[in-house]
Structure formats: structure tokens, C-alpha cells
Design a protein that fits this description.
Number of helices: 17
Radius of gyration: 25 Å
Largest sheet: 8 strands, parallel, barrel
Distance between the termini: 49 Å
CATH superfamily of the largest domain: Aldolase class I
Bound molecules: 3-methyl-2-oxobutanoic acid, zinc ion
CATH architecture of the largest domain: Alpha-Beta Barrel
Strand content: 15-25%
Helix content: 40-55%
Shape: globular
CATH topology of the largest domain: TIM Barrel
């Protein structure tokens, strides 16, 4: 039997700490469900003491998500531990994760505490957390820059106090693989009770080494890896889940006898979900999940792949749930073919969602000759996330050009009533948004706007992802259409509807 590497996902905690990545409670639950479907072992759902919103979101995830352990983060402070315990206690398997810095820099400048005081607090906080929960993780923050002798002492003491996992964070992404591997090895050799706890690693990507460092640590005996989807996280991000999982899986010769519980064919879908909801685009050349990760441009490569896939492909794209842009459906495809294709892509929609998605597919097929898998995924993801809209787009007209001031007329349907507004703007998209604002009484501030073609070709589906601030609430929303003004309008209307829901 292979030995399992525990995958601890911190997309919703460290990932969400990335500037601009904030998610609302509903979106967090959606990500958590995606992570559970992906098969992660532990979901670090948030930092409950940090805000009321975070507390409620962790609690909602602990209540709704079955399968993974649900973890809440806490400083080595009683009220933090109490909040983490209260937020996670409803989970079938809760975990409290306590952290306290052990490096000289942090102890001197940030905490202003001596080593003896840090040691005492670490032990007391783990003992306190154990009063609420039998699964307690301790992280000596900035471990990779801590004095080794002191680090060993803290790790030994927290294990004796009841920590079941000890995490060794490379908080500022400073270490390099050989050094980090030797640190893990040294912990194994110098902490007498280390066998009583799981060694975990948590790497940041400031030098672009987070994945390499995590893998080196696994080679040295770490058995839990903390990571995020698409590698999002503080500053340059965290180690990327998909890279770690696929490296362990692809290089069985380097990682013999090791495995993860991740359902690889869910990787691409989960990556897209996190990208959409956080508004963080995935670089085309991002390993495993970038749109170019499996594209072969040069003739020599294409020829090689056609003759034998493994000449230039080390991973079969479908293994990670990437089905490329192969032509699948068209105008004459029926409901059965549509449903079958969705099943092949791993989507199981409820009857009502399926009806609406099929209707959208038919409308798209009238405008676009070839419907690709990515078009289908775009349509379906819209349906899964759709809120029952208060306002629906009825029609719109825009007038724009080099010598005229852009103007839009937008008609919306609210229940059975048709509303109409006209507005000018800095561009046709701005004019449309302003017209929507007039009818809905909203004053949305556009924080981010991203337009992408879902597939190739002039008739490609345009997908617009936006972030809008409405009355202090930051909302991510999306719209897609073969018309980019319509896609923008739908995205904005989606945000307004989400706010109203
Ligand atoms: O990077 C870090 O040190 C952390 C800890 C809270 C584990 O995120
Ligand atoms: Zn971190």
C-alpha cells in the first residue's frame, strides 16, 4: 500500500489573503465544495478571529462540507483559539491550527518577546487548543529563518503539549530546496518525540521555489503539504496544489510508494472555479492548468505528439480534466448529446439548471457554428453559480465611434415589467453600466475588468470577469456572450443581482 501525502489546502485562508482575492461566504462555500470534490484531506477555511465575516464563513463551511477535516487558524492567544474552536466545532472532523513566530527577527521586532516567553506561549496555546479539539496543528512561523536549536526545542515542546501536526513554514519564501530538505531531516533527527506528530510543510513562492521546496521536504519525510489552488496566496503566493500533486504522481520513480488522495480529473475544473471566483487570471504558461500547458505550437512538436504523445507530453491532459478545445457540439446537437458531453466533463446539473444551460447552448449555437468544451464549461459554470435574478436583460443598443460620445439604451425586465434607461459613458461598456445603475438604483464601482476569449476564432465566446464594489461589498461576477458588450453587460447585471439577492 502506498503511503499517503496529506493535502492541506489553504486556498480559503492563505490564498484568500492575496490582495484583491476576497470572497463572500457563498463563494467560499462553493470553493470548499470544489475542494471536497477534488479530494483534499484538510480545508483551512479561514482565520475566524480576523473578522465576523471570516468566522461565519468558517462556520458555514464546517456545517456544509462533508469529507475533509475543516481547520481554523488562530494566533497563540486564547480568544483566537476560542474563535477557531467555536467556528469549526460543528464539523465532523475539526482542526485548530495555532501559529507563533520563532525566528529572531519576528520575536524581536514583531512580538517583542524573549525565547523563553515564546516557548511558554507555544506550549500553553497548544494545551488550550487541545481542550476544545483533539486535532491540533502548531506552526512556528518563519521556521526556515529560525535558529535551529530553538526550533527543535519548540517543536518537541508543542508535541509534548499535544500537537498532532507540526508545520514548518517558509513564511517569506526564503529557503531553497536543499536547505529546506535538510531542515526537515534535522527536525527528524533532533526532535526526540517527532514520531508522535505529522511533519507538515508550508512554502511561499517569493523566489519561485515553493513547489520545489515542498517536494524536497516530502523526500526528507514531510507527510503533509500545505498548498493552494493555482498557487494563490500572500505576495507571490503559496505552493501550488496542482503542481505538487502532479509531480508526485508523474515522478513515481522519484517519489516511490507515495500518493495523494486527489481526484486528478477534478484539477482543471477546480482551478477554473478558483480563478473565476477570486478574479485571478491563470497565466497561459502556468504549469498543469494554464491554457498553453498542453498546447504544441511548433511543427516538430506537433508532429512528435501525433506520432507518439509521450514525445512532448509528460501528462495526459484528460488526466487533470483538461479536454482541450476539440469540436464537440453544434446547432444540430440534441439534448442527449449535450447531457452526455457535460457528464464527460464531470458536471452533474440539477434538472432546472440543465434546462437553462441547454437553452443557452441553443442560443449560442445560433450565433456560433462550433461549440467547444470550453464554451460548454463556461455556460454550465454560469448556471451552477447563477442567483435567481431580480433583473434580467431584455435588450440593449449601443452607439459608439471615434467622433461620437458613446451612448447606450438598455432594457431590463423586473418581474413582468420592462424598464428602460439611456446613458452616456466613457465607452460603450461604461454607458451600459450607467444605464443599469439608473434602473436598479445601484452605484457600482468597477474595481477590475477582464475580457478573455473562451476559445479561438472570430466567433469565440467572450467571457468577462469583473469585480464591482457596491455599498462596501466587493462582488465578483461573470458574463459570457459572442458579443463582448453583451458579455460585459451580463457580468455587471450579475453583480447587481448578486448584491440584491
Ligand atoms: O506563512 C506562514 O507562516 C503562515 C502560517 C500562519 C502557517 O501562513
Ligand atoms: Zn503562509
Amino acid at each position: 500500500m502506498d503511503e499517503k501525502i496529506i493535502i492541506f489546502d489553504t486556498t480559503l485562508r492563505d490564498g484568500e489573503q492575496a490582495p484583491g482575492a476576497s470572497l463572500n461566504e457563498k463563494e467560499k462555500i462553493e470553493v470548499a465544495q470544489g475542494l471536497a470534490n477534488l479530494g483534499v484531506d484538510i480545508i483551512e477555511a479561514g482565520f475566524p478571529i480576523s473578522s465576523k465575516g471570516d468566522f461565519e464563513a468558517v462556520r458555514a463551511i464546517a456545517k456544509a462540507i462533508k469529507g475533509p477535516v475543516i481547520c481554523g487558524l488562530a494566533r497563540a492567544i486564547k480568544k483566537d483559539i476560542e474563535a477557531a474552536a467555536a467556528a469549526t466545532k460543528i464539523a465532523r472532523r475539526p482542526r485548530i491550527h495555532v501559529f507563533l513566530a520563532t525566528s529572531k527577527i519576528h520575536m524581536q521586532y514583531k512580538l517583542k518577546k524573549a525565547e523563553s516567553e515564546i516557548l511558554r506561549l507555544a506550549v500553553e496555546s497548544v494545551k488550550y487548543a487541545r481542550k476544545f479539539c483533539k486535532d491540533v496543528e502548531f506552526s512556528p512561523e518563519d521556521a526556515s529563518r529560525s535558529e535551529r536549536a530553538f526550533l527543535f526545542q519548540v517543536v518537541e515542546a508543542v508535541i509534548a503539549a499535544g500537537a498532532t501536526t507540526v508545520n514548518i513554514p517558509d513564511t517569506v519564501g526564503y529557503t531553497e530546496p536543499q536547505e529546506y530538505g535538510s531542515l526537515i531531516q534535522a527536525i527528524k533527527n533532533n526532535v526526540p518525540n517527532i514520531e508522535k506528530a505529522i511533519i507538515s510543510v508550508h512554502c511561499h513562492n517569493d523566489l519561485g521555489l515553493a513547489t520545489a521546496n515542498s517536494l524536497e521536504a516530502v523526500k526528507s519525510g514531510a507527510r503533509q503539504v500545505e498548498c493552494t489552488i493555482n498557487g494563490i496566496g500572500e505576495r507571490a503566493g503559496n505552493a501550488s496544489l496542482e503542481e505538487i500533486v502532479m509531480a508526485i504522481d508523474t515522478r513515481k520513480d522519484i517519489f516511490p510508494g507515495l500518493t495523494t488522495g486527489i481526484k486528478k480529473n477534478q484539477i482543471y475544473k477546480t482551478s477554473r472555479l478558483v480563478s473565476r471566483l477570486t478574479g485571478f487570471a491563470i497565466a497561459p504558461n502556468k504549469a498543469i492548468v494554464g491554457t498553453n500547458a498542453f498546447r504544441h505550437e511548433s511543427g516538430i512538436h506537433q508532429d512528435g505528439v501525433l506520432k507518439e504523445r509521450s514525445t512532448y507530453e509528460i501528462i495526459k491532459p484528460s488526466d487533470v480534466g483538461f479536454h482541450g478545445t476539440g469540436l464537440v457540439l453544434g446547432k444540430h446537437s440534441g439534448r442527449h448529446a449535450f447531457i452526455e458531453r457535460l457528464k464527460a466533463l464531470g458536471f452533474h446539473l440539477e434538472k432546472k439548471q440543465l434546462e437553462v444551460a441547454f437553452e443557452r447552448f441553443k442560443q449560442l449555437a445560433d450565433r456560433k457554428k462550433n461549440i467547444f468544451d470550453d464554451d460548454l464549461m463556461s455556460i454550465v459554470e454560469d448556471q451552477i453559480r447563477a442567483v435567481t435574478p431580480l433583473w434580467k436583460l431584455e435588450s440593449f443598443e449601443v452607439n459608439s465611434g471615434t467622433k461620437i460620445s458613446p451612448k447606450a439604451i438598455v432594457r431590463l425586465k423586473k418581474k413582468e415589467k420592462i424598464l428602460q434607461a439611456e446613458s452616456q459613458g466613457d465607452g460603450p461598456v461604461d454607458a451600459c453600466f450607467k444605464a443599469i445603475d439608473k434602473m436598479t438604483g445601484t452605484r457600482g464601482e468597477l474595481l477590475d475588468y477582464r475580457l478573455e476569449a473562451v476559445t479561438q476564432g472570430k466567433d469565440a465566446l467572450g467571457e468577462v470577469n469583473i469585480k464591482v464594489k457596491i455599498k462596501n461589498q466587493v462582488i465578483s461576477a461573470r458574463g459570457s456572450s459572442t458579443d463582448i458588450i453583451e458579455a460585459s453587460l451580463l457580468a455587471y447585471l450579475n453583480a447587481v443581482n448578486k448584491h440584491a439577492a
